[in-house]
Amino acid sequence: MDLLGLGTVKQLAEGLAGLPMFPYFDTAHYIVSVMALREQPGALEVSRRSPFACWFSSMLYCFGGAVLSGIILAEAPVAPLANSTNVLLASLMWYLVFYCPLDAVYSCAAVLPVRLVLTGMKEVTRTWKVLGGVTQASKKYENGLFVMIAVGWAKGAGGGLISNFEQLVRGIWKPETNELLKMSYPTKVTLMGAVLFSLQQCRYLPLRTPDLMLIYTVFIVVNKTRMMLLGSSSSPFDTVESALYQTLFARPLTYSPLTNQSQSSTRTPSCPAKPDSKSAPGVSNGLPQTEDQPDCSESESSKKTN
Amino acid sequence: MDLLGLGTVKQLAEGLAGLPMFPYFDTAHYIVSVMALREQPGALEVSRRSPFACWFSSMLYCFGGAVLSGIILAEAPVAPLANSTNVLLASLMWYLVFYCPLDAVYSCAAVLPVRLVLTGMKEVTRTWKVLGGVTQASKKYENGLFVMIAVGWAKGAGGGLISNFEQLVRGIWKPETNELLKMSYPTKVTLMGAVLFSLQQCRYLPLRTPDLMLIYTVFIVVNKTRMMLLGSSSSPFDTVESALYQTLFARPLTYSPLTNQSQSSTRTPSCPAKPDSKSAPGVSNGLPQTEDQPDCSESESSKKTN
Amino acid sequence: MDLLGLGTVKQLAEGLAGLPMFPYFDTAHYIVSVMALREQPGALEVSRRSPFACWFSSMLYCFGGAVLSGIILAEAPVAPLANSTNVLLASLMWYLVFYCPLDAVYSCAAVLPVRLVLTGMKEVTRTWKVLGGVTQASKKYENGLFVMIAVGWAKGAGGGLISNFEQLVRGIWKPETNELLKMSYPTKVTLMGAVLFSLQQCRYLPLRTPDLMLIYTVFIVVNKTRMMLLGSSSSPFDTVESALYQTLFARPLTYSPLTNQSQSSTRTPSCPAKPDSKSAPGVSNGLPQTEDQPDCSESESSKKTN
C-alpha cells in the first residue's frame, strides 16, 4: 500500500514537472495579475486617461519577474517582448479585464469560485518561475547559492519587488514603503521557494526536483486558497518570523536620547546627537523616518566614507 | 516624366540614406537638445550651482536614446562615452549654450530662422536613431517585432522617456507625470516611426528602407517646422488618437460608487469599497490618483498576488 | 642615499600593489560602511522594523561600487553575491554593528583611534576599487578614456552615487539632492583617482601603476586622517574648484527677469517668461528649483525636442 502510495506521488510529481504552463496556466496568471492591477487605487482612472500607461503597467505585472531577473543577470529586460504569443495573450487579457463591454470578464472572474481556481493556477506558475530563475542563475554561477536565491526570488516575485517603479508608470510615488521594508505574503513565499530550490540545486537538500516542485506547489496553492476562503491575512510564516526576530534581532538598546550625548564620544559637541535613532527598549515604532538631520558639516564630512 | 520623377525620388532616398550624421546633423542635435534643457525650469539655476550635474543632464539629453536602448538590450549604457569625439562635441555645445560669454551662442541659436534649421536637422537624426535601434534589435531578435519597436522607440525618444530620471539629476522629482501617461509629440512620432521601420524590417511593409527613410524624414521635418512656425501644439495624430480611443477604450462604466458595495461580492463587508476606482459614465478626470486606500489587511492580503 | 630612498619607495610601491585586500582591509571596509549606514537618520529604526531591508541597505553600502559598475558595463549587478565569502563576511559585520549584545562592536569601533585605523584601511581599498574599475573598462574599451573614468569612479564611489536609491530601500526619498548636485569628499577624491588611473592606463601619465597606487593611497589616507582628527570638512580641492569655477563657469547673466520678455523673441507673447531661470548677476541661490512652469502648450509643444 505504501509503495503504491509512494509510486502515485512520484507519478504525480513527474506529471506536474512536465505540465506545460502555456496556455491555460499562463492565461490564469495574466488574468489574475491584471485584476490585481485593476484593484489598485487609481488604476481605473489611469485606464481611462492613458490606455498605453495602463497596458505598460499590466505588462510589468505579468512579466515583472522576467524583467527583474533579466536586469540583475544583465540579460535583456526587453526579452519577454520577444515571446510575441505570450505578449499578445497578456495584452488580450489586459484589454478584456479593463475594457470589455459590460465589464463582463472582470465581473465573472471576480466571482469567488472562479477567482479561487484562477489564483490556484497562478500559484502553480510561481513554482515554474522560481525554478526557472534558479536554473538560469545556476548556468552562469554554478555554485553561487546567493545568486540563485536572488534570481529565483526576482523571477518569482519580480512584479511585487518592482512595485514602486510600476506605480511610477501610473503617476504614483510612495517611497515610504516597499516590498523589502514590508514584505507581502507572495514575496515571502517566493523567497522561501527560492531558498529551497537553490539549496536543492546546490545539493544541500536531498530531494529530487519534481518532488520539491510537488511539495512547494501543493503548499502554496493550499495556503493561498485557505487565505482567500477565510479572508485571512495571517500567513503561515508569522510564528517562525516572530521567533527568529526575537532570537536574533530584538536587542534592548543600550542608551536613551537623554544619555546619547554623553555616550557618543566620537561626535563633535557642536553637533546635536541624532535623537530619532534611539528609542526606549522594546518600543517598536512602525513609522519610517524621513526627517533630515541638521547638517553638521564639520563632523559629518569627516565621517562620510562612501 | 513620371519615370524621371520616380527616378529623382529614388536618388533622393538613396542620397538621404547615405548622408553622414557627423558632424553637422549631430551638432544640430546636440545644440537643440541642450537648448531644450536650458529652457527647463530651474536648469540655469543648476548650471550655476553645479556645472557637473548640468553637464550630466545635457549628456542624458544628447545621448539618452543610446543609453536607454543599451539598458533594455543589456548592452553597456556607458557605451556612448566610448565615442570620445561625439562626447567632446556634445560637451562643447553644452559649454557654449550655457556659459558662452555674452550668451552669444544661445541668443543666436534661439533666433527663429536659425532654430528652425537646427531643429529640422535634429529631426533628420531621429530617423537614423529609430532605424539604428530597430536594426540593433533585429540582430539579436530576428523576428521580434515588439522588441524592434521597443528598441527603436527607446533609441529615438530615449531622452524624453527617461525624463523623470534626468530631472532627478537636477534635483527635481515629478512622479505625477511621465511620457507614458502623457506622451509628447516627439515621443508619439518616434513610436510611429519605430512601428513603421519594424514592420518594414519584418517584411510586413512592402517598402525599401531608403524610401521609408525619405517618407518618414520628410513627414517629421515638415510637421515640426509647421508646429514651430504656427506655434501650434495640435499634432497630426489627434484625430486618429481620438477615433482609436472612442472605438477601443471609451466604455461607460457599469456601476457607480453608490451601488459598488452591493456589486462587489468578493469583498469582505468590513472593508470599504474603493470609491476612487469608479466614476460616473463619461466623466474624465485628468488628475492621477495618489491617495491611499485604507489598509484592509484581511481581504487585501488574500487578494495580493505578485 | 637618494638611490636607496628611491629603491625603498619602489619596494613600498610594489609591496602595496601586491597587498591582498581580503580579509583585513575588506573587513575594515565593511565595518566602516555599515557604521556609516547606522549613523544615517532613521537607520536604527529600520533595523528594528525590517532587518532584511537593513541588511539589503548594508550590502548596497558595502558592494555599491561593484553593483553600479556592473550596471553601467552591462555586467550582472548580482555578481558580487557570487563571492559568498565576502557576502558572509559583510553580513557578519552588519549583524555585529547593528545587533551585537550590549552594542559592543559599534561602541568599540566608534572610539576615535580604532575608527581612524579602520577608516585608513578602508581608504586603501578605495585605490583597489578604482584601479579595478579602470582595468575592467579597459578590457572592453581599449582607448575609451571617458568610459574608464566613469567605471573607475562608479566602482570606487558607487555607494555614494546610488545613495538616493539606497535610501529608497529604507523608505526615504530625498530627490532635492544627490551626489552630482553636491559632491561629497569621498566622491570627489574617487573621481580624481579615476581620472589619474585612466590617464595612466591610456599612457598620458608617465607613471608606473604601483607608483601611482602608492601616491594616491598615501594622499587619500593622509587627507582622510587629517579631516577626521581636525573634525574639518574643508577638502583639499576647495581652492582648485573655486579657481576652476571662477574661470570657466561664473558668467554674469546678460539679462534680468524684467527685460526677459523683450529679449526672448522666440516665445509666444501669451506664454509668460520663465522667471526662475534668471537671476541678478553674481547672485548664487543654493536652493534647487522644484516649481512648475505654467503649461504654455502652444509654444511649449512646438519647442519640445526629445
In short:
With 306 residues, chain A is mainly α. The first copy, chain A, is built from 14 helices and no strands. The longest helix of chain A has 29 residues.
Task: Provide the descriptors you would attach to this structure in a database record.
homotrimer; 306 residues; mainly alpha; 64% helix
Model description:
- The structure is a homotrimer of 306-residue chains.
- The first copy, chain A, has 306 residues and is mainly α.
- In chain A, 64% of the residues lie in helices and 0% in strands.
- Chain A contains 14 helices and no strands.
- In chain A, α3 crosses α4, α7 (112-140) packs parallel to α10 (185-201) and α8 (145-161) runs antiparallel to α10.
- The longest helix of chain A has 29 residues, at 112-140.
- Chains in contact: A-B, A-C, B-C.
- The interface between B and C is large, with 66 and 60 residues.
Secondary-structure element series of chain A: HHHHHHHHHHHHHH
Q: Which structural class do the helices and strands of chain A define?
A: mainly alpha
Helix count of chain A, per DSSP? 14
Can you give the mean pLDDT of chain A?
84
Say what oligomer this is. Answer: homotrimer
Distance between the termini of chain A: 64 Å
Q: Stretches of chain A where pLDDT falls below 50 for ≥5 residues? A: 254-303
Radius of gyration of chain A: 23 Å
Q: How large a portion of the residues of chain A is in β-strands, by DSSP E?
A: under 5%
- Total strands of chain A: the figure is 0
**Shape label of chain A:** globular
Helical fraction of chain A equals: 55-70%
Main sheet record of chain A: none
Largest interface: B-C, 66 and 60 residues
